[in-house]
Amino acid sequence: EAGVAQSPRYKIIEKRQSVAFWCNPISGHATLYWYQQILGQGPKLLIQFQNNGVVDDSQLPKDRFSAERLKGVDSTLKIQPAKLEDSAVYLCASSLDSNTEAFFGQGTRLTVV
Amino acid sequence: AQSVTQLDSQVPVFEEAPVELRCNYSSSVSVYLFWYVQYPNQGLQLLLKYLSGSTLVKGINGFEAEFNKSQTSFHLRKPSVHISDTAEYFCAVSDRTGGFKTIFGAGTRLFVKA
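Structure tokens for the assembled complex are given below, as produced in the milestone run.
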């Protein structure tokens, strides 16, 4: 079974630029999560989708971060404009539904300089 | 709201020695508990989980953890570690009533020395 796919694996941008990350969840998984993992910390949930609807985005900095999951499959996470403190690994995860365990992708490492 | 505290940021240990990585959680409701492992430049891999039933949970790679409700702990153990176990380990908790939103601890870096 194919796992959660994320791209790109690495991205370096200058502050104030914009960036987008892509996630393809495991086939059939209705729930999709985006996490931010800052170096030395555990992952922090940014947003949770159930199909194409947002379930929880309370931790998403909405002034600069946005995410969508059109058609309830793939998802993109965008940062515009980026700040130095956005440097982190962005992890995507998916689960069959909101009451089963999540499977994680390898993440996208973002460096903002 | 839940929270997770991993009591050790780093644990150095010699190969073939036993190891325990400590995790305490707080929650006002019943929870599910997890341990994940993260190898360098990799995503998170589930080691084991406690959903219900037996409080002693066995996972992959010879790891096990014991759920202690009275002490709100979920410590991870392995009787004999290998060099290949060197990685970051994360304890996590999910609220049983609010979907599977998972809160992670800050992580414990296990460093196995030859």
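The interface with chain B takes residues 4, 31, 33, 40-45, 48, 55-56, 91, 93, 95, 98-107, 109 of chain A (CB under 8 Å). The radius of gyration of chain A is 13 Å. Further analysis is deferred to the final report.
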